[in-house]
Amino acid sequence: MNVTRFEPWGLFDLLHRDLDEIAGRRFGAAIPADGNLVADWVPAVDILEDKDRFVLRADVPGVNPDAIEISMEKGILTLSGERREESTEGFDGLKRIERVNGRFRRRFTLPEAADADNITARSANGILEVTIPKQPEVQPRRITVQAA
Asked: 139 partner at 20 to 30 Å CA-CA among 63, 84, 104, 131?
């Protein structure tokens, strides 16, 4: 008995991407000046919150850590990068390529509690982990009113 993975939305996702690409070419969708689309694929991301930090984990298998760019501007954290196509020249066997290559980009609006100056990132085993510490909470202070 063969076990087959059933992904009912996988076919629709491929169809949607192909139709978007065709429509973009035909109707002149906005393409950046360098001719590249904004993103060819989107990495899956988990976001966790502790009492003192946020942790963002993105699946970026096959992406060189040097090809990942992380920026923070006006409360928006942007992850971008590129997974390059592996050469299959000289390969005489059967080919089936399902992994998408090219650029990716994800943007996240950070809460006011995020400490943008101390964000750190590391990549290991195809997982990019971005740690965003929280700023210390400012405790409310009672102000007494003095009689004049």
From this structure: 131
Read off the amino acid at residue 10. G
Stated pTM of the model: 0.65
pLDDT one-digit tens code per residue, 93-116: 767 777 788 899 999 999 888 999
- Give the Cα separation of 142 and 111 in Å (integer): 26
CB 108 within 8 A of CB 56: yes
**pLDDT for 114-127, tens place per residue?**
999 999 999 999 99
Alpha-carbon span 108 to 78, nearest angstrom: 6
E strand or H helix at 130: strand 127-133
